[in-house]
Design brief:
A hairpin with a 4-residue loop joins strand 17 and strand 18. A seven-stranded mixed sheet has the order 1-4-7-12-15-17-18, with no helix packed on it. It is of the alpha/beta class. It is built from three helices and 18 strands. The protein has a single domain, classed as Hexapeptide repeat proteins (UDP N-Acetylglucosamine Acyltransferase, domain 1, 3 Solenoid), CATH 2.160.10.10. The model has no long low-confidence stretch (mean pLDDT 95). The radius of gyration is 18 Å and the shape is globular.
Length: 201
């Protein structure tokens, strides 16, 4: 079993293995290339498609970005990400259509064991010792707005039409049509017609 297969089967894996380092290196180099280009450069946005798992035809990353694997992330149509998007996609990440990220949003689909000996000194089949990780998927539904400075942890499902308030740390699921915020983030209430801002037009 490869180290990448271990990730998807929910097992501990060696993130420092050459196999995984090579996959990540491609994404890291292309993120550097993306970040170095002017936002009006027509060659900038197509770089995303060189390493992302899947993405719709219409999308925008303001940048800078840092994405760990890229090929483990699947994004729908009409995606927007503001400054400083960080995606630690050791586990798979699924993002629906019409999703918006504010500045400094971090998706963290990776974690380490709590017991130090398991985290710092795992001995692998080939005899080498390394740090170990495990990864749970993140699922973000359609029409979701993630406000600034939000951290979404592995294993979380965010429902369709949800809003996550600024500065939240999301460790549990948020249902469809709810606004959630806080540290830890909690579903606060349903979003209703009373939240309309059409009067501002």
């Amino acid at each position: 079993m490869t180290e990448e297969e271990k990730i998807f089967q929910g097992k501990l894996f060696d993130a420092r293995s050459q196999e995984l380092r090579d996959i990540k290196h491609k994404a890291h180099i292309l993120c550097q290339k993306f970040n170095a280009l002017d936002e009006y450069d027509e060659n900038r946005l197509p770089i995303i498609k060189e390493f992302i798992g899947k993405i719709g035809e219409k999308y925008y990353f303001q940048g800078p970005i840092q994405i760990n694997y890229g090929c483990h992330t699947y994004i729908g149509e009409n995606f927007f990400a503001n400054f400083n998007t960080t995606i630690l996609d050791d586990g798979r990440i699924y993002i629906g259509d019409n999703v918006m990220f504010g500045p400094n949003v971090s998706l963290m689909a990776s974690s380490h064991p709590l017991i130090p000996e398991e985290r710092l000194a795992m001995k692998y089949q080939d005899g080498h010792v390394s740090t170990s990780e495990y990864a749970d998927e993140i699922h973000i539904g359609n029409n979701v707005w993630i406000a600034c400075n939000v951290v979404i942890c592995g294993g979380v499902n965010i429902g369709n039409n949800a809003v996550i308030g600024a500065g939240s740390v999301v460790t549990k699921d948020i249902p469809d049509n709810y606004i959630g915020y806080g540290n830890p983030c909690k579903p606060i209430r349903l979003i209703t017609e009373k939240d309309s801002k059409l009067d501002l037009l």
